[in-house]
Amino acid sequence: MNKIILHKGKDKAAWQLHPWVFSGAIKTVEGSPENGEVVAVYNVDLEFVAYGVYSAVSRVAVRLLEWHPDRVIDEAWWRNRVQRAVKMRAHLLNDTNDTCRLIFAEADFLPGLIADKYADFISIQVHAAALERVKPWIIDELVSLLKPKGIYERSDIKSRTHEGLPDSNGLVYGEVPPEFVDVLENGIRYQINIVEGQKSGFYCDQRENRFLTAQYVKGKRVLDCFSYSGGFTLNAFQAGAASVCSVDSSALAIDTLKRNIAVNGYDAAKSTAVQSDVNKYLRQLGEEGEKFDLIVLDPPKYAPSRSSLDKASRAYKDLNRRGLMLLESGGLLATFSCSGAMDIDTFKQVVAWAALDAGKEIQYIRQFHQPEDHPVRASFPEGEYLKGLLVRVV
Ligand code: SAH
Fold first, then answer.
1. Largest Cα–Cα distance in the chain?
2. pLDDT tens-place string over residues 360-387
């Protein structure tokens, strides 16, 4: 097996079970490992550290997989990782829920692989060259564990170019998913477009937060910003909201949201679905003197990296200030950040800063997290990305 030898001191993170070795940490590459091939990593004193998979192209040159020197990374090893991940989620799938993340990359010890279950279909994304090589085993294992009707790959993600991989979209097993796959989450029906929708078609990471937020909306006027296909909107109707105004810049998202309201039989007269830029629309609502009882702000990732954190903080602040201005006293703001670079303390500060600017006194009454099908591995804190706050205007 080809060997990777690390520079002095660069083995520390790897000993602490962190799964990434950056190219700058490598002193020598012995042999000529191919993209995605298994390599053995040693420290400068030639002590074995771990096995991993090599990438000649990526900034993450080795993704570490196994710290036990006697274990072999073979077909059975990969299949076992898939089995473990799927087994841990079994209790999430029941009569009211047939949708969840099955595999969450590094957090499930399968770096670069995402798999989501949507009723009888599975959507997968592959970000790493090594996974490309073992994909047939992974697909076969998913088929034998879950018996899906079809598995569809949506690997049209920027990170693949960093790995020297071309886009790869298409059917990898069974039937092509219909244009709309009917799924159930929190007992609510959604029509999901696996082939054309954003990400893998749905944001199942907000499942619990949608449900928790809806506990506060009975008889209330709700504004759901960045609604996508209606995750927060539908949970609000289910919980008896008086009205929900949903805003998203994507026409496809708004169309899907309207269809989802219809398939669940909610009263369309209580829904306003607006295709608009959220900031622009919030400004307009402010000028019109509109007020709401509960506002959801679930924007896309504003801080893709640490270096963009300052700029992103200002964007989060402006957005939250606009939201807070539209709340009545006693009103609630459910505000989220899915930027991994922004931790919960920074996010709290940003929201506090927004409240000061808005001239509002606020209380934090709840914190939101990513759900258990998006676990955070202790040795990989980078996997923690979704956080939120439920804020009351005093
Ligand atoms: N709350 C959603 C997920 C939101 S994902 C749910 O529960 O499923 C972020 C959404 O923001 C996407 O649907 C995207 O189309 C939308 N978006 C991105 N930038 C926007 C902008 N400036 N104004 C309005 N919507 C925007």
1. 71
2. 999 999 999 999 999 999 999 999 999 9
